[in-house]
Amino acid sequence: xxxxxxxxxxxxxxxxxxxxxxxxxxxxxxxxxxxxxxxxxxxxxxxxxxxxxxxxxxxxxxxxxxxxxxxxxxxxxxxxxxxxxxxxxxxxxxxxxxxxxxxxxxxxxxxxxxxxxxxxxxxxxxxxxxxxxxxxxxxxxxxxxxxxxxxxxxxxxxxxxxxxxxxxxxxxxxxxxxxxxxxxxxxx
Length: 188
Fold this sequence. Notes:
Elements: H1 2-7, H2 12-21, H3 23-37, H4 43-59, H5 63-80, H6 83-92, H7 96-106, H8 109-125, H9 127-130, H10 134-144, H11 149-156, H12 160-174, H13 179-187
């Protein structure tokens, strides 16, 4: 594959897909793509190089660089007219709403369903907190983070007695009996 890239005959659309979803392969492709991206006027290689950089940054935990590079790649692929690769880059950049709109527009129903499942999963993970009032949520998060009643009371500008009373309500609503169980529930 590297030889095909160097020769300029690689199937670029397929490379974009591989680069975005297979970071281990992207590491191997990066040097050859860097050379191609340096060529003036090669918009596809420049876009692909940004996508690879975004994918690798995400893999390495550098979310800021991942978003930055993925956004550059998405804009470039939009200008080239490759909406599915643009959508994948938007997704990598964290712009799920735009990615979803592109997937819908292009009829990529599998990707639409995948993103919808992912979004539902996130919403389900916040479900325990949904039964709490905003103030109870604040307190629950402080307690789950290890704050003592006194520290939580100070942070929320309430009395320790109010913290104790609110904790009783929170425990009841969430079906837990201790700080440890609360922290465990919220960690999930």
